[in-house]
Structures are given as structure tokens and as C-alpha cells.
Sequence to fold (461 residues):
Amino acid sequence: MNGDRMRAPFRRPPRRGYLCGPTPRYRLLERRVAKDTLTITDNRTGKQYEVPIADGTIKAADLKQIKVADDDFGLMSYDPAYLNTASCRSAITFIDGDKGILRYRGYPIDQVAEKASFLETAYLLFEGELPTRAQLDKWESDVRYHTYVHTNVIKFMEGFRYDAHPMGMLLGAVGALSTFYPDAKDIEDPHNRYLQRIRLIAKLPTIAAFAFRHSRGLPYVFPRNELSYIGNFVNMTFEIGGKHEPNPVLQRALEILLILHADHEQNCSTSAVRSVGSSQVDPFSAVSAGIAALYGPLHGGANEAVLRMLDEIGDKSQIPAFIARVKSGAGERLMGFGHRVYKSYDPRAKLIKKVAYDVFEQTGLNPKLEIALELERIALEDEYFMKRKLYPNVDFYSGLIYQAMGYPTEYFTVLFALGRLPGWISQWEEMLRDKEQKIARPRQIYTGHDERDFVPMAMRG
Ligand code: CMC
Fold:
């Protein structure tokens, strides 16, 4: 007979968290009946609980029944930064971080990036299916119809300081759109939601281009609706004196980059959109929350940080010293490396590396690319990075490409926002339709003082 079985009833459970592994007693039960449930023994009370397992999860609310006394609130799970908590059900994007898989609505990212246009990808993310020719034509023409912004949006944007960060401008202007379209508050009506979705997709490139021109002191260029979505955006950013010579290779490269950024399930900015949107605010306000989250250096700002890092390294000979500083744990990071979800090569990074070669063939080689390639080679062979499963992420090469296209460093995150918009709105829509969702409201473990009496100023030391 197996030793576990003989000793099971008498052995103390492991000290390290009772929920982290099956107790010997449970292993015994498990052999008898396989059930989609989890049996929890509360060693404070000796009581046992059986909670259902569905889709590889237990419901955190099922833990509430586990109490030491009737007036006890009940057991909670503690998960700062949501490392192991599913906050929703979603049918939009699938990621397997260990295998390096990313799919939009079931379609592998490399196929979508190779074959679809950005608006087609946006349609796929919103609607769940690839559009027919007629559906895509209607979608494109609806978007085209709404590319202009109200003249007061222009005045609003002109009010920003001459050196305002374009991402701050985008954030402010998108939030302000809610005052231009108060009808957007009616989030119950699907037709109205469609209209706001179109407005966002159509106007974001215009606002983003205005932010670009503003920081360069250039007059704003208005949309030209005979151009493609990407062509129009590029024209609004780079046209000078009514002229711009489009480069189809660079435009397609930009389109691929935007497609690769279009959704990435429950990342920081998408969670912000869902969380803020769960208060039933209008979509412009919810999306501006996403833009704010993306602004941070650990999220969308990372490609900007990669270029700064490459500038600081300056030369291939300095790479070993830089890697040593990163490994010393003094706080410096190899930007563009590592990911909360991917524990192998980010599939987007693979595709972006390919795009980088296409772009540099057109624009000439950037010496920073050489530093990046060498940095990647060294890091991928280094024990520190291997042990922590740190691989290049989407931002490692994207900044270099944007720079080669002529976009300044502080503009990279704006380009990321343009790409991520379809994901934000699709996830917002999915959240609204999900009957299990309510206003987001995490709990806390209170670590402050117990009740104490207020101390008058004169008596404070
Ligand atoms: N360089 C050096 N060490 C790193 C890095 C890095 N880029 N990333 C993680 N580590 C180390 C970290 O110090 C820790 O080591 P230890 O276990 O010894 O304390 C270990 O790896 C785990 O790191 P973590 O911070 O707990 O991991 P996380 O999942 O919380 O962080 C991350 C993910 C993306 C914030 C982080 O990898 C990072 O800061 N990367 C650099 C910034 C970056 O490139 N961000 C873009 C992310 S992809 C675009 C997007 O989706 O927004």
C-alpha cells in the first residue's frame, strides 16, 4: 500500500498555504472520484468546503463561505497586480505565453498581420468574424465619413503648450471628445455604441496627427478621405506645403505594426478601459483611461525607453558593461525585454524584426539596430535572462522602426495607442454585454491603525 494512504489522516498539512497543493487526504479522495471541484480544508476550524472548478478557475466569491466565525467577512484571495486572477471571460484574443502564441478571434497573428488591413483587423476584433467585401466596404466608408473633428477640438488642441507631450495631448483631446458628443453617454443602445466606435476609430488618427504637428510647430493638415486609413494618417503627419510622396513599403510596415498592437487581452491599458468603463461612463472617457495607462514607461512607453537605452549604450563595445549593470539588480532594466505573459519569444517581436529589415532597406541602416541585435544576441545567451525567461517583447524593435519612418521618440506611444484602439473598444463592448460584469471594485487587506481618537493640533508632538 502506498505510504501516503497509510499516513494521510495523521499528517499535518504543509505550512506553505493550504490552497497551493492537494493534501494527502485529498489525493486519496481524488483517486476515488474525479470531480471538477476543489476540496478545501480550513485548518483554523477543521471544516471542509467543496468549490466548483470551471475553465481551470475557482470563483473567488466561493471562498467567502470559508469563515472562522459568523461575523467574519469570509476568506479572500490576495493577488496584487492580478498575477493569477482572471477578471473576465473574453472571446477576443488568445495568448499562450509559454508557447509564444497570439491569436485574434482564433486567427494566428502572423496570418492576420500578413494578409489583413488595419481596418479589417479592427472589424474582426469588434465583430468576431472577418468581414465580407460588402461589410468591409461599408465599415471603411463609415470610418471615412467621420475623420474630421469639430473646429473647437482644434482650438482645444492649440491651447496646449508648444512642447506638450503628444501622448498627453492625445489623452486630453480624446477625453474632451465626450463633451463634443454627449450622446455617447447612451451606452445601452448598440446603434449608438457603433456610432461612437466609428467616431473613435475615425478621429484618433486626426487627433494624433494634430498632436504630431503641434509639437513641431507645423499647421494641422486635414483628412483626405480619398486616401486609405494609413495613407491618410501618414499624409496628415508628414505633408508639407500640400505635398507628400507616399512610400508604400513604409506605409505597409506601419500598418503591420498597428495590427500587431491591435489587442493583447487583459493588459494594463485594456484593464483600465474595462475598469473605468464598468462605471458605465461614455467610451471616450473610458478610452482616455486606456491612453493614460499606456503612457507609462512599463507599458506603452517602453519603446521610447528602448531608444533612450540604445542611445545611452552608444556603442557595441559598451554592451557588456550595460548588461552587467542590469544584472547587478541596482534597478536598471533591459528595456524591450520581458513580459508579464510571454515566457518565450513574443510572437509580435519576431514579426517586427522582419518588418525592421524591410524598413531599413528603404531608409538605410540605423547604427542603433546593430546595437539592438547585439544586445539581443548577448541577452539571449546570458544565464540571468534565460533563468527569468526574459525575451525581446513587441517594443524592442518597434521604436527603431518608428524612428526610421521619421517619428520622434515621444511620439511612439501615440502610434501604439492608434494600434491598440480596436482592442480597447472591442473589450469595452464585450464587457458591457457580459452579464457577469459589475462595476469593478477590488477588495483590500487593511494594514492601517485600529480606531484611535483624533489628536488636537496643540497636543501633537
Ligand atoms: N531587464 C532586467 N531584468 C528584468 C526585466 C528586464 N527588462 N524584466 C524583468 N526582469 C527581472 C526582474 O528584475 C525580476 O528579477 P528577480 O526575480 O531577480 O527579482 C524578474 O525578472 C521578474 O520580473 P518582474 O518585474 O516581476 O516581472 P513582471 O511580469 O512584473 O514585469 C515587465 C513585466 C514587462 C514590466 C518587465 O519585464 C519589464 O519591466 N520590462 C521592461 C519594460 C518593457 O519592455 N515593457 C514593455 C512590455 S511589452 C509591451 C506592453 O505590452 O505594454
Q: What stands out?
A: Confidence is low (pLDDT under 50) at residues 1-21.
